[in-house]
Amino acid sequence: MSDILLHLLPHVLASLLYTALGIHFWQTRWRETRQPLLTLPMQPWERAAIFGALAVQGIGLYAGLFSAGGMRFSFSFALSLMLWLAVLIYWLESFRSRMDGLQPMVLPLAAIAALAPALFPQLREVANANAWGFQLHFLTAMLAYSLFTLSALHAVFMGFAERKLHQRAVTRSLTSLPPILTMEALLFRMILVAFCLLTAALVSGVMFSEALFGKAMAFDHKTLFAFASWGIFAALLVGRRVYGWRGRVALRWTLAGFMVLLLAYIGSRFVAEVLLGRL
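Structure for Cytochrome C biogenesis protein, as requested:
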């Protein structure tokens, strides 16, 4: 029992840290006060605190995934890893752009995701985890998932900011966000990188499926959703390049592609592991 609690401790601690940081950023960047609407850049101690939460969660993820001598995985660890990478990407981006106003929405979601392995600790062994083909597929897939998750959150932020601007409502939360054009440029930069990673994940899955598992890649619902999401993001990038899509059109396509991609693995594993009790 003590070993189980020890393994769960980093996930719980990371969730508490993300929660505290989320509350802090909401109070200092979003909470309406009678003070003048001044921007407050991210402070060094705030970056250090986020990095500390990332380190604690990273320790828990590594211990859960690799401590048994091989590799184990589940939907809860996939969700936690996705948000861990998303927070890490935002943390790195904060050194070149203003990300402080986006933290009040990212950090609470990271807190929920960090707690998922503690609530659903069941793990299953991953076959062929040492094969480089599988490692390439896994790494590109998780990075793509994380970037698309961040892109979806970013799209929500942009929709929020645009609505406030159209309403001519200058609030503290709006002034803490980067300019719309900066957010839009970052959004499509993330989508382009994520699309390339998703393409690499799908190609590696097709190429190495027979070598690793002795059979061709199965065209199941997970594969169908993954390819459907790839098609949606491909259409979005083409529409952006050819027709200049932006604003609400781009945001809708981004969210649609993300929801389909989410069903490809996280949704299917949640149904199998939690609702049906299969590992």
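The first strand starts at residue 72 and ends at 73.
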